[in-house]
Amino acid sequence: MSLLRNLNSPPLVALAGGALAVGFPALQGALSAGASLALLKSLNLAAFAANCVAVSIPGRLDGPQDDEMRKGSLNPTKPNADSAGEGKDDGYSLNRSRTLVNPSGWAFAIWGPIYLGEAAFVAAQFVASDATASALLPSLTAPFVAANIFQSLWCASFRPSYGEGWRKYVSAAMLGATAASLSVVHSAGAAAVATDPSTLGYLLLPMTMHFGWTTAATLVNLNGSLAADESASPRSLIAMGNSSALAATALGVGLTIARSDPAYGLTLAWALAACADGMSKRIPSQNATEEETLKKATAVQGKLCWAGSIGCAVAAAYAALL
Q1: Distance separating alpha carbons of residues 159 and 139, to the nearest angstrom
Q2: What is the DSSP letter of 286?
Q3: Measured distance CA(91)–CA(218) in Å, rounded
Q4: Within 13 Å, how many C-alpha atoms sit on residue 293's CB side?
Q5: Which of 59, 40, 60 is nearest to 48 (CA)?
Q6: 118, 109, 125, 115: which is closest to 40 by C-alpha?
Q7: Is there a contact between 187 and 179 (Cβ–Cβ < 8 Å)?
């Protein structure tokens, strides 16, 4: 554990993420051009296992909230509160009091189905027929492996030691890269299923949910990183919050219809509904002058998130009927 802490330096983590992003096309080309099924399956297993280990290492900024969620003691009406309903006096909670993109605690229950579903995918690839594996794995393995590595790097960077300057934005970049990688998984999986309807498309559902959730989570993370900057003005926080709600809505509606996948739209609808609900229970900023401005913006932000949630749900219904 001490070795991992020593290796976890912001420049090193940022460099690792950048190297993976630059090298991704080469990785995808190598794995899709004749790599054995045994190698592809082993890489998927190793990457997913590494992600599970990274998620379990304590010390992340959301650690107290994550611990309470795992124990079932998280108060869903106060996303930054402990089981007794008291606000936690830590950097994570203080950042959440300034941001306008702060989902209620119940939203994070989606991680359970995502990880269980992806574990089922990793297990199923070992018992699937060669025809099914050959249809899915060559195009899915590189982005799936990349997504798990990027999320592991997010776990490394979403920590107090990344709280200053450019370091604050490393975690948002890693989460964004996770979503981008899962977008490639989603696109490749949809193409494989369209080519061969007998392909086990239901195995891709948890990765679609993961893609949708990390899309929203990237925006949550980005807003939190900005809120951590004490010099950030209320105007900038409001602009970031409003634009994030609109961006999530545009992505949710656009990709759901373009790729005819209701699951992505429903996941964004879930996330936006949680953000809207979070606005009704937001912890006030400790700065009275700032709070006066942010409180007025809260109502607008809540309406934007609710409208976006409904829009994504309608798009999902439309895609389901196509």
Answers
A1: 33
A2: S
A3: 19
A4: 12
A5: 40
A6: 125
A7: no
Residues 6+ apart with CB under 8 A from 232: 98, 226
Please report, for residues 188, 194, 204, 223, 317, the alpha-carbon distance to residue 185 in angstroms, rounded to integers and kept in the order given: 5, 14, 9, 26, 22
Biggest distance spanned by C-alpha atoms of the chain: 64
> How far does the chain reach from its first CA to its final CA, in angstroms?
51
Predicted local confidence at residue 79, as pLDDT? 45
In a 3-state reduction of DSSP, which class is residue 190? helix
Closest Cα partner for 178 from 219, 231, 131?
A: 219
Six-digit token string for 6: 């020593």
Structure tokens at 231: 């010099």
Residue 58 CB coordination number (10 Å) = 9
Which are the contacts of 87, defined by CB distance < 8 A and separation ≥ 6?
Answer: 78, 80, 81, 93, 283
131-152: per-residue pLDDT in tens? 888 888 999 999 999 999 999 9
pLDDT the model gives residue 93:
52
Return phi, psi of residue 59, to 5°: 110, -5
Closest Cα partner for 112 from 66, 79, 176?
66
Q: Find the radius of gyration of the CA atoms of the chain.
A: 20
Q: What angle do CA 122, 127, 130 make, to 5 degrees?
A: 105
Identity at 231, one-letter amino acid code: S
Neighbours of 257 (CB within 10 A): 16
- Identify the CA nearest to 272 among candidates 94, 295, 264: 264
For residue 91, pLDDT over 60 is answered with no
In the predicted model, is pLDDT for residue 167 greater than 70? Answer: yes
Distance CA 110, CA 203 (A): 16
Provide, rounded to the nearest whole percent, the portion of the chain with pLDDT above 90.
66
pLDDT tens digits for range 239-286: 999 999 999 999 999 999 999 999 999 999 999 999 999 998 887 877
